[in-house]
Amino acid sequence: MPHKIVNGQQVELTAEEISARQTEEANWSAGAKDRAVAELRAKRDRLLAQDDWKVVRAKEKGTTLSAGFKTYRQALRDLPSTVTDEMSAEDVANIQFPTE
Exposure check for the chain: N or C terminus, fewer CB within 10 A? Predict the structure, then answer.
């Protein structure tokens, strides 16, 4: 039986406490995909920000960026749209990021 510690003593959880804990765990599991998508976006944003200076420099100098670099950045921007409803949190976490 699940338990908790109260004043240094092990006490069994009530049925209501067990039910509440099960609900918390179910809610946490249900949000796993949302957390994975948020992490995907955060990583994507970091990678885009990492190379923003190249875009600014090219604009300032009036030069063009390579087609490969543009393709890489577009692939990063498009990454969240590759997530489908059928994907699990693990699937999202395993999405391969494009390389420059």
Answer: N
23 sits in the region (left: phi over 0; alpha: psi -120 to 50; else beta) called alpha
Quickly tell me which residue has 């003593």 as its tokens.
Answer: 9
Which residue has tokens 């976490």? Answer: 93
64: left (phi over 0), alpha (psi -120 to 50) or beta: beta
Domain boundaries, the chain: 1-30, 36-100
The pTM of this model reads 0.75
Which SS3 state, helix, strand or coil, does residue 7 take? coil
**Helix and strand numbers, DSSP H then E, in the chain:** 4, 2
